[in-house]
Amino acid sequence: MTRSSTCEAPAGSLTRRQLLWGCGGAGLALLTACSSAGAPPAPTPVPTQAPAPTAAPAPAAGISPTAAPTAASAANLKFAFAGGLGSAGLYVALDRGYLNEENLTFEEVRFDTSAGMIPSLSTGQVDFGIGGVAAGLFNSIAQGISVRLVLDSWTALPGNQAGGLIVRQDLVDSGRIHDLPDLKGLRIAVTSKGQATEYALNIALASVGLTAADVDVTELSYPNMTAALASRNIDAAISIEPFAAQAVRQGVAARFKPWPEIVPNDNPAMVIFSQALAEGRNDQARRFAKAYVHGVRDYEAARTSGRDRAEVIASMVRHLDLKDPAIYDQMPWPSIDPNGRLNLEALTHSQTWFVEHGYVQKPIDLSQVVDYQFADYAVAQLGRQPAS
């Protein structure tokens, strides 16, 4: 796996190399700021040096695996990388040899935000990326940009504590804030209008009869939210990991309502394929899905039961921008569907909200964009697992 050039965001745009859910929206929001930037030059492929493959588990009883190619063709895929925890399962798959088992390698093409990925995915300059729910994603597809939403990289499973609403520690300590109605009149940060953070805030407020008009909504990047909480320039924020964990660790914020409690089973981020990969190189896309889901399952096992947790943390430290192992041990990890399956109902609900609030003018038929064949192939090969 190699790292390549960066698509730089225009001056004044929100830059988050760390997420993700880094990258707008749910830490992955697909901003339009980078969409006009020039496509990055094609990097020079260098084969991935992966560890020896780990044996895959046998398929579950009653599931007939689809026969894998007998002589899988080698391929080097281009990965649109904007940083963040949403890529954890991919790098576990890399380090554990699951991609190597499928005769696949990949190279990173760096983007400052996931917004710039979409045009590059549409033209096939990159093969896949990890991006988030936002009005810009739906609008881009409605305007004819051809991509496929294929695999999960963050589902807000009930009980998971990752991301969500954090509030200033002193407001909790003083008793000023006990529950959601106490947010009335306070200043609350989201990454930007039309992104998943604004969506989550409005759902939280609506649950207690409030609207955005009852609070003072301001726009800040995730790192700047932490600074503004420390300086008391904001009272609360919708944040994601690792930024929420860093704010809590610094003593400037307290966890208030986790994302899965605000929007249970929300699907803030996902793997996106180019049409060229999904259709033109379908065999490669399916083999990638199998390796990715295998890596996600190891990530989930470390998250939920602690199995091989140190090894999984080592993979994240090795490949992601957050290099402090202690934070990985302290923060709640975002949950991912172990079968790689996207939640069409959740995606439809979020698009409907963006339509109702004027961010999306022409809703798309998500059933034509969400492509389950890749998750289904992975499950046929690996067996089905229950979500934890």
Description:
With 388 residues, this protein is α/β, with parallel strands linked by helices. It folds into two domains: 272 residues, Periplasmic binding protein-like II (D-Maltodextrin-Binding Protein, domain 2, 3-Layer(aba) Sandwich), CATH 3.40.190; 99 residues, D-Maltodextrin-Binding Protein, domain 2 (3-Layer(aba) Sandwich), CATH 3.40.190. The chain is 34% helix and 16% strand. The chain has a six-stranded mixed β-sheet with strand order 1-3-2-4-11-5. Strand 7, helix 6 and strand 8 form a beta-alpha-beta unit. Helix 1 crosses helix 11, helix 1 crosses helix 12 and helix 11 crosses helix 15.
CATH superfamily of the largest domain: Periplasmic binding protein-like II
For the secondary structure, the number of strands is 11
CATH architecture verdict of the largest domain? 3-Layer(aba) Sandwich
Q: Strand fraction band?
A: 15-25%
Percent helix: 25-40%
Average pLDDT, all residues? 85
Distance between the termini: 30 Å
Q: Biggest sheet, strands in spatial order?
A: 1-3-2-4-11-5
What would CATH call the class of the largest domain?
Alpha Beta
Q: Stretches where pLDDT falls below 50 for ≥5 residues?
A: 5-69
The SSE string, one letter per element, is: EEHHEHEHEEHEHEHEHEHEHHHHHH
Per the principal axes of the C-alpha atoms, what is the gross shape?
globular
CATH topology call of the largest domain: D-Maltodextrin-Binding Protein, domain 2
Q: Please identify the structural class as seen in this structure.
A: alpha/beta
